[in-house]
Specification:
The complex is a heterodimer.
Chain A: H1 3-14, E1 18-20, H2 22-32, H3 35-38, H4 41-55, E2 76-78, H5 88-96, H6 106-120, H7 125-132, H8 135-143, H9 169-181, H10 191-225, H11 229-244, H12 253-270, H13 282-296, H14 301-316, H15 325-330, E3 339-343, H16 355-367, E4 373-378, H17 384-394, E5 402-405, H18 406-415, H19 420-424, E6 427-429, E7 433-435, E8 440-449, H20 450-458, E9 462-463, E10 468-469, H21 483-515, H22 519-522, H23 528-531, E11 542-550, H24 552-568, H25 574-582, H26 589-597, H27 607-624, E12 634-638, H28 644-650, H29 680-687, E13 701-704, H30 712-727, E14 732-737, H31 740-748, E15 757-759, E16 764-766, H32 772-780
Parallel strand pairs in A: 1-2, 3-4, 4-5, 8-11, 11-12, 13-14
Antiparallel strand pairs in A: 5-14, 6-7, 9-10, 15-16
Helix pairs in contact in A: 1-14, 2-4, 2-6, 4-10, 7-21, 9-10, 10-11, 12-14, 13-16, 14-16, 16-17, 17-30, 20-21, 21-27, 24-27, 31-32
Chain B: E1 2-12, E2 20-25, E3 46-54, E4 57-65, E5 67-70, H1 71-80, H2 82-88, E6 91-95, H3 103-115, E7 119-124, H4 130-136, E8 142-146, H5 152-159, H6 164-175, E9 180-186, H7 194-204, E10 210-217, H8 223-229, H9 243-255, E11 260-262
Parallel strand pairs in B: 2-6, 6-7, 7-8, 8-9, 9-10, 10-11
Antiparallel strand pairs in B: 1-2, 1-5, 3-4
Helix pairs in contact in B: 1-3, 3-4
Classes of the chains: A alpha/beta, B alpha/beta.
Chain lengths: ~775, ~260
């Protein structure tokens, strides 16, 4: 890493996460003006973006090769009052909270009190959303049966395809105009609506060209003041790039990356979509430019790496927008989930690994920063050499890159009806979410607390935390004669809550389609322009809505324990079991001992337990998969938690697997922390028993001690382990390679481990930034040591 | 047909090539002073009491070491891991204790593996009658053969038995040209003198079927196991080897033309 990058990296690492009030001020000014009153909602949103880009403060970080900050400096993070309005108390919490905090200046609070809050109170998407929900929905939400992803952040969950590398925004504007020209005002009753949307897209596209021009002027003015000849030249070069892209299609690697960054910046300024935005298959996109630059002799490998490293820093400068309340609990991290995909398959089905794939791995290893996240797509066609190079980085222990099964991703997408080329152009974004890049809107709508639903079932519809009846009566479990009766009751209860969630989602989807279109994002996802429809209104070629199941491992162990201890072996009757759970095992320590140590558990390749996992998975799947959504899409499931397994655990009393009240649930499809005692092959076998192809992503976490990866043979066997899992259609696996000892030390002396990055669940995070409960959980996850 | 197994390790990485499943059979005719698996020595099921701390209440648990397995049950366990064997060129390793104590039990399992093309390895101390060894000799693909001492007096003292049978069986395997990896547990001050190594080299040089020597350096980790099982720990306090010292021995063996690994 050269000095330039070292400085930029250090600047990014040491920057304070802070709230920038600029966006809130500008949007309030804009909506107070007369402009929005004259035009339709899509145009309001486009003109808003223009207003923001025309007026926001520009920022150039000395030495950087890619320009553009959302805030006025690195990690200055805006708020989005049109979605979620922060109260003064919220701002104070953001400022004071121990983890994932944002510094809030007094001036910001003053502005909020005087102008932001008075203007937006009663007009936010969050208030609109909550006011539209039924009492049943609200009860379930408050009890922690599910979360609502769109209460504080807009839908997003998509990744860029390769369009921008072939078309400048001027070309895209041409596409918009031909789409407008093709509108049929005689037969198409939506023609007007479409024209409004398309014209909004054009405004948005032009506003980004103008913003690039502003940056260019700014860089030229800096160049004029620069006395160092080399630096002057660099500034002029970047200024010229900003004149060329995004207006025109890029022709060099540098132009391609700067173009992407303008796209990214626009998407995350327009609204606060989940998972920010994602460059997707970056090695595939960049390789032709890299090759061409090399052939022309206008770029060296070292220069390419330098530009890429500067690009990497830009992601790290942009933390996820501040989250509060339940949203903060379900995704408690600064990470904003841009997940760079490397490797995989070409559209023709051949191996896609190229020289750029290896260069990106080098960059990841050398940069060693939180953002962007990175992953490697491994297909059966991927050479071993590439996956070994990947594991080489994994073993350095910062949780990146994670490893995905391309062949499973393609199968998942094909099953959902995508074309084979669109499927092969796909990958995973966010944590583990499968998508067809550049053509699909695949929004996550909320986590679903399967274990809480079992708790409600065991209490005949009542939430024992509040003694409120929030479910349906499915029978007093004391009277259940067989385990099957329990399963039937659970299924009824699960279907009841799935219906509530889906009904809520279909209202939320319309709220976003009607009130919060995203004409800028719609420029980049096909076929929004062709359809004359917004991304948030089903404009994409494929529209999928996900509900994310949480706690499969815990739920399996609870069911297994009830089957084993209550029904099959009659070690204890249901009544006594429920009593023990109600008192959090106080006085039932012997029982708890047996539940933990002498009861079969998921994660050990034991069919007795694993069969329950399959049953639960299928109940969840059947209740959601294939149902229509309100923007013309389809509901599907995936299995991932981010940090929601902690929150969901906190709302559940003691459980029959020996878990105590409020303890975290298991994450993803991983076994309960510490329950897998037969090593990683057994975990993989258990996890592969559910049908991953029916999901849009599953998450499996494995923790290894560094010792196992020390030798060549150890490394080879990890590769074999991954390949075996993928042969069984496993979707994703990630590794924490760090000893429990190191983690405990880090907990005691956080100051010494500022750079310790660990894998959490679908993403990496600084160990220091994790809550103590999550830290403990990561320490507890089985360490597959000393084999 | 039943055998007593005290552990089955999946994802075993050090008992042959690839990802392996290692099946540990209970009972050993040797009583090596440094034995890492004292629970393997008694051919019968052992048990001990362990207290789990559950919410600050000590809960008594009876832990049994060893479980009866039928041939079919073992085969079921093996079948679970075939996907890993296929992918990694791995297989099954039979260890102990001393697996040659259980040839009647092993024979049908080994035949099953042979029929299914699953690679088999036998981790043995070599102390068994010639007949027992002959009964399975062609069913095993790889022998992981422990040699502790060539000096018989020392062998008798530190393991409790003479090494005559062991060395004879080694010769028998060589005559039949069976693939052998020699496993050398290296115990400071006990079997690691220049003289010990020299004797070992002279013995091994007679044969051409030794594909590798694995050095297994002694680790001071098993004392608590002895205490738990109420077995006397005879090995005096010895300091673990420095990696330099092991490297010297490794280089000496390499010089003699052997392929050598160190199992940390």
């Amino acid at each position: 890493m050269n000095n330039r990058i070292k400085k930029l990296r250090e600047q990014s690492l040491s920057a304070t996460n802070k709230i920038s009030v600029e966006r809130a001020v500008l949007i309030t000014e804009f909506y107070n003006s007369n402009i929005p009153k004259q035009v339709s909602i899509p145009k309001q949103r486009a003109l808003w973006l223009k207003y923001f880009l025309d007026n926001k403060k520009l920022c150039y970080n000395k030495g950087e090769l890619i320009i553009g900050e959302r805030g006025f400096e690195p990690k200055a993070t805006p708020t989005y009052p049109e979605i979620c309005l922060h109260s003064i108390k919220d701002l104070e919490i953001l400022n004071a909270r121990e983890k994932v905090s944002f510094k809030v200046e007094n001036e910001t609070k003053n502005i909020y009190t005087k102008t932001i809050i008075p203007f937006w109170k009663g007009r936010t998407q969050r208030e609109r959303l909550f006011s539209q929900m039924s009492d049943k929905w609200t009860d379930a939400y408050n009890a922690g049966v599910f979360t609502e992803f769109q209460e504080q952040r807009a839908p997003g969950h998509t990744a860029n395809g390769n369009k921008i590398y072939k078309k400048g925004l001027l070309d895209i504007i041409d596409d918009i105009n031909s789409s407008i020209n093709n509108l049929d005002f005689f037969k198409d009753e939506k023609a007007f609506e479409k024209r409004e949307e398309l014209q909004a897209m054009e405004i948005a596209a032009k506003s980004m060209i103008d913003y690039a021009k502003r940056n260019s002027d700014f860089l030229f003015s800096l160049a004029n003041k620069e006395s160092d000849k080399q630096k002057k030249l660099e500034l002029e070069n970047l200024a010229n790039i900003c004149l060329k892209v995004p207006a025109n299609k890029p022709e060099t690697l540098h132009e391609a990356l700067q173009y992407y960054w303008f796209v990214h910046l626009g998407v995350i300024s327009e609204l606060n979509p989940w998972d920010s935005f994602n460059p997707g298959r970056l090695d595939q996109h960049l390789y032709p430019f890299y090759k061409n630059d090399l052939e022309k002799g206008i770029l060296t490998k070292e220069e390419a790496v330098e530009i890429l490293q500067s690009f990497w820093v830009k992601f790290n400068n942009h933390p996820a927008p501040p989250k509060i309340g339940i949203t903060a609990l379900e995704s408690n991290t600064y990470t904003d989930f841009a997940l760079i995909n490397i490797g995989g398959l070409k559209p023709d089905g051949s191996n896609a690994v190229n020289e750029m794939s290896y260069i990106l791995l080098d960059v990841i290893q050398e940069m060693r920063i939180l953002q962007p996240s990175s992953m490697v797509q491994l297909s059966k066609k991927t050479p071993d050499n590439f996956i070994k190079r990947t594991v080489d980085i994994v073993k350095t222990g910062f949780g990146q890159p994670s490893i995905f099964n391309s062949d499973a991703i393609v199968q998942e997408l094909l099953r959902q009806g995508k074309s084979v080329e669109d499927a092969r152009n796909g990958g995973a974004s966010g944590c583990v979410e499968t998508g067809a890049f550049g053509t699909e809107s695949y929004i996550l709508t909320g986590y679903f607390n399967l274990a809480k639903i079992l708790e409600i079932t065991l209490n005949n519809g009542v939430d024992p935390k509040t003694n409120k009846k929030i479910g349906i009566e499915t029978g007093n479990p004391i009277n259940f004669k067989s385990f099957d009766e329990l399963i039937v009751a659970f299924k009824k209860q699960e279907n009841y809550f799935a219906d509530i969630k889906i009904k809520g989602n279909n209202i939320v989807e319309r709220l976003y389609a009607d009130y919060m279109p995203v004409p800028y994002l719609s420029l980049f996802i096909d076929d929004c322009i062709c359809n004359g429809k917004d991304y948030n209104n089903g404009g994409a070629r494929y529209n999928t809505s996900y509900i994310q199941g949480v706690g499969l491992g815990s739920l399996t162990d609870i069911f297994t324990s009830l089957k084993f201890n209550v029904f099959d072996n009659k070690n204890i009757c249901m009544e006594d079991m429920l009593k023990a759970l109600a008192v959090n095992f106080k006085g039932y320590e012997k029982l708890r001992n047996d539940l933990i140590y002498n009861t079969p558990k998921y994660g050990n390749d034991d069919d007795y337990a694993d069969e329950q996992a399959v049953k639960i998975f299928n109940i969840f799947y059947d209740s959601i998969n294939g149902r229509p959504s309100a923007r013309g899409g389809i509901f599907r499931i995936n299995m991932l938690p981010t940090t929601c397994h902690i929150y969901f655990g906190s709302v559940i009393n003691a459980t029959a697997d020996g878990r105590k009240a409020s303890d975290p649930l298991s994450e993803g499809i991983s076994p309960v922390q510490g329950a897998d005692t037969k090593g990683p092959t057994a975990v993989i076998k258990s996890a592969a028993k559910i049908d991953h192809i029916k999901t849009g992503g599953t998450l499996l976490n494995q923790k290894f001690s560094p010792a196992i990866l020390k030798t060549e043979a150890g490394l080879n066997n990890i590769v074999h382990l991954i390949r075996s899992y993928f042969k069984m259609d496993g979707h994703h696996i990630q590794f924490n390679v760090v000893s429990a000892k190191t983690l405990k030390e880090a907990q005691k002396h956080p100051e010494k481990y500022r750079d310790l990055i660990v894998r959490v669940a679908g993403y990496s995070d600084y160990f220091n930034d994790l809550g103590e409960d999550l830290q403990n959980e990561i320490i507890k996850r089985t360490e597959h040591e000393s084999f | 047909m039943e055998g007593i197994v005290f552990d089955i390790k999946h994802f075993a990485l050090h008992d042959g090539s690839g990802i392996r499943q290692t099946i540990f059979l209970k009972g050993c005719p040797l009583k090596c002073w440094w034995c890492h698996n004292p629970e393997s020595q008694n051919p019968k099921i052992d048990s001990y009491i362990k207290y789990n701390n559950i919410d600050d209440v000590p809960i008594k648990n009876k832990i049994t070491v060893g479980k009866h397995y039928s041939v079919n049950e073992i085969i079921k366990e093996i079948e679970k891991d075939t996907v890993f064997f296929d992918e990694s060129n791995g297989g099954v390793t039979f260890s102990g204790g001393e697996p040659l104590l259980h040839t009647n039990f092993l024979k049908p399992i080994l035949s099953y593996c042979n029929n299914k093309n699953i690679h088999t390895a036998l981790d043995t101390c070599g102390y068994a009658t010639k007949e027992k060894l002959l009964s399975i000799i062609d069913n095993v693909d790889l022998y992981l053969y422990d040699i502790k001492f060539i000096d018989n007096e020392k062998h008798l003292k530190y393991t409790g038995v003479s090494n005559e049978l062991i060395l004879n069986n080694f010769r028998l395997l060589s005559e039949k040209n069976k693939n052998i990896i020699v496993r050398l547990p290296l115990i400071p001050e006990i079997n690691s003198t220049d003289k010990d190594i020299e004797l070992l080299i002279n013995f091994l040089k007679q044969f051409n079927n030794v594909s590798q020597i694995d050095i297994l350096p002694y680790h001071n980790i098993s004392k608590s196991k002895y205490k738990r099982l109420n077995i006397e720990y005879k090995l005096p306090e010895v300091e673990e080897f420095s990696s330099d010292k092991i490297e010297i021995i490794k280089q000496r063996l390499i010089k003699e033309g052997f392929k050598v690994t160190i199992d940390i």
